[in-house]
Amino acid sequence: xxSVRILLVVVAQEGWSVHHLDVKSAFxxxxxxxxxxxxxxxxxxxxxxxxxxxxxxxxxYGLREMGFQQSAHETAMYRQGSERAVxxxxxxxDDLIIAGADAEEVEKFKAVMKQRFNxxxxxxxxxxxxxxxxxxxxxxxxxxxxxxxxxxxxxxxxGCNPAHTPMEEKLMLSRDxxxxxxxxxxxxxxxxxxxxxxxxRPDLAFAVGYVSRFMExxxxxxxxxxxxILRYMAGTLDYGLHYKCASGAMRFIGYxxxxxxxxxxxxxxxxxxxxxxxxxxxx
Length: 283
Hints:
By secondary structure, the chain is α+β, with helices and mostly antiparallel strands. The protein has helices at residues 2-14, 103-116, 145-154, 184-197, 205-211, 220-234; strands at 18-23, 37-39, 53-55, 69-70, 77-80, 87-92, 95-100, 119-124, 127-128, 131-135, 139-143, 240-244, 252-259, 270-277, 280-281.
C-alpha cells in the first residue's frame, strides 16, 4: 500500500494519469523448462541456511524482462526509461498500476502486457484495494468513503451523532481496567478495519493506534473509545488525501514528536512521524 501511495504522490505532482491492469491468470504460472534460482526473500530466510537459494518450479512474472528496474527501496515498484519518457509500474499480486510521462508509452506497455498475458484493461485507476481514486488534470484524490460506511455498519453506529475530534481530549486508558469485558473478536475486527482506513485517513492514526493497545483484553471503556472514533468518522466520511500538481521543485520533509511516559501502564512514550513530498503527505 505504501508503494502505491508513493507512486500516486509522484504522478499527481507531475500531472500524469494513472491506469489499471488486472491479470486474470496471476496464479496459473507455467512450468519452467530451464533452471532458475532466486534468493530467499527478506524476512523468510531459513535460519542457519541464509546462504542458500530457491530453485523455481513455476514461472514468475517479471517486468525486468521488459527492461524495467526494480526500486531498491520499494520492491513492488518498477521503472523504465529516461526522465522524459519514464514509465512507472506498481505491482500488487494481480494488479498493475501504471503511469508515465508519455501517454503513448503507457498505451504501448499495456498492449505488450495484454499480448503476453490474459489481462483486463480497467482504464484510468478509479478503485484499488477498497480505495476510491479520483483523477483530474491537476490532482489525484484518495478516499475510502464506502469502506468507512461499512465500518460504521460493523460497529452498529449508522446514524450516530458525529463527534468533532477522533478521541476524547486527554483520554488515559489502562490495560488493567476493571470495567466490563467486551467481545474480543468484535473489538479486534473493529480495530483491524480502522487500521486499514488509516491509509487514507492520517487524522485517525493516533486514536486508532491508541485503541490498538488493548486488543488482548478489551473492556467497555476501550470499546467506548472506538465508538468515539466511529462518531468522528461518521461526520468526516468524505475526508481523504488530496495530491495536486507541484508548482515548483519538490522537497521531502519529515517531522517527528513524542510524548514522554504517556502510557499509564508502562510509562513508555508514544512517537509520531509525518513525511511530506512537497505539500503531499506520504506517510
